Amino acid sequence: MEERKILVVEDSPVVLKVLHHLLSQNPIFVPVLCACYEDAEKKLKEAGNTHFAAIVDLNLPDAENGEIVDLILSYQIPCVVLTGNFDDRLRLSLLNKGVLDYITKDSRYSFNHAIKVVERLSKNQGLKVLVAEDSVVSRQFIKLLLEQYCFTVIEAENGQEALAKLEADTDIRMLIADYNMPLVNGYDLVRMLRYNARFQDLVILGLSAEGDSALSAKFIKAGANDFLKKPFHHEEFHCRVVHSLEAQEMLETIRDLANIDPLTKLKNRRCLFSEGETFFRHAKGNAALAMLDLDNFKQINDTYGHIVGDSLLEALGQVIRDAFPGMLAYRFGGEEFCVLAEVSGPHMLEVVNDFLDGLRRKEFTEAKIALTCSVGLCSQSADSLEASIREADRNLYEAKRLGRDRVVADF
Ligand SMILES: Nc1nc2c(ncn2[C@@H]2O[C@H](COP(=O)(O)OP(=O)(O)OP(=O)(O)O)[C@@H](O)[C@H]2O)c(=O)[nH]1
């Protein structure tokens, strides 16, 4: 991953050390430390635009009145202020200038907070947000706020255009939708999106003009993650955007933990049984299922040890993902895998044979370990998951009996 230089300007050696330590915990951050304004000015002149973000103290020995903020912002570097004194007016003026956050050094958690802001920025890079709002002024304002936080912004003037853009671009992560929009209003847009399984993970923030207190509940009942009344303060806007995103990320992490095998990064057996039945219902007979089982893996474990065995399974996960693109691949258990696809038996047979050929040519780890695999294929009785697994297993058993490193199909 690309490294990101974080400029830290702070006269206290202790704080500098703490920030250096915290930033170094994240391998993509490279802290660039400066003890005074002059030092920072020099670093910026040398390589100003290469800094990803800055964390600065307001009171520096050679610039006591926050001059460092203007310097950082003149290079268009996102800036987080860390300071000893809390002053509401100063805070507001800094936020209005474009400072991302104003954090008082009132506890050791303040430093973690500053790092969290920078980490969030880094995660936001490349993350697409669609702003659906008919008022140009309001749309541009929201765009500006989002761009300050490194989001990539896409715009739509009405609900219909928003829907078309969401359907065309599956990478859009978040939608900010105003209520009052021509053609399709924000509320109907949210309802339409949530009826579609494809948009279940889209983070949605509803927006409306002040006055209609029933709207917030209406938006949330329709499936929005949160709601904001205009006019809003940009600090509140950022907090709500970030909270909704982080809640969704947490949900996806939990879902991955339940469904993904940590070693091979393939979906697990539990996921096969929850997805498989639906898959067979939709496939209506045009489905093929392959059971893959590594050959003599016990012997490999006995010879090289379980840790090497684990690294082989990890590598095999990637080989399987590459060999069966667009298909559903699962770790069935131990050294056994299952691949499902809405394809004909002969097509699956061809893909499996390519996989076996590729595997024969590979060598794993520094010890150049060779792996082979036996495969049982089922496509004839492909009308239920369980029947297909049973048939594929019978064929797999036959492949082992015939000498391994081969595929046996039911046609
Ligand atoms: N390292 C490692 N080994 C595993 C894991 N899961 C299963 N195994 C090993 O896989 C081996 C499977 O052994 P067997 O069922 O006898 O099958 P085999 O040796 O592959 O022989 P055939 O299937 O008949 O070709 C056992 O030694 C298991 O301990 C795992 O997560 N990590």
Report what the structure shows:
- This protein is flat.
- The protein contains 15 helices and 15 strands.
- The chain has 411 residues and is of the alpha/beta class.
- It has helices at residues 13-24, 37-47, 67-74, 88-97, 109-124, 136-148, 159-168, 186-195, 214-222, 234-259, 269-283, 297-304, 306-323, 345-361, 385-401; strands at 4-9, 29-34, 51-57, 79-83, 101-104, 128-132, 152-156, 172-178, 203-209, 226-230, 288-294, 328-333, 336-341, 373-378, 407-408.
- The mean pLDDT is 91.
- It folds into three domains: 4-123, Rossmann fold; 126-258, Response regulator (Rossmann fold, 3-Layer(aba) Sandwich); 269-408, 2-Layer Sandwich (Alpha-Beta Plaits), CATH 3.30.70.
- The strands form three sheets. Strands 2-1-3-4-5 form a five-stranded parallel β-sheet, with helices on both faces. The chain has a five-stranded parallel β-sheet with strand order 7-6-8-9-10, with helices on both faces. Strands 12-13-11-14-15 form a five-stranded mixed β-sheet, with helices on both faces.
- Helices cover 49% and strands 20% of the residues.
- The protein binds guanosine-5'-triphosphate (GTP).
- The site of guanosine-5'-triphosphate (GTP) has 17 residues, from strand 11, helix 12 and helix 13.
CATH superfamily of the largest domain: Reverse transcriptase/Diguanylate cyclase domain
Main sheet strand line-up:
2-1-3-4-5
Shape: flat
Q: Please estimate the helix content.
A: 40-55%
CATH class of the largest domain: Alpha Beta
- SSE order: EHEHEHEHEHEHEHEHEHEHHEHHEEHEHE
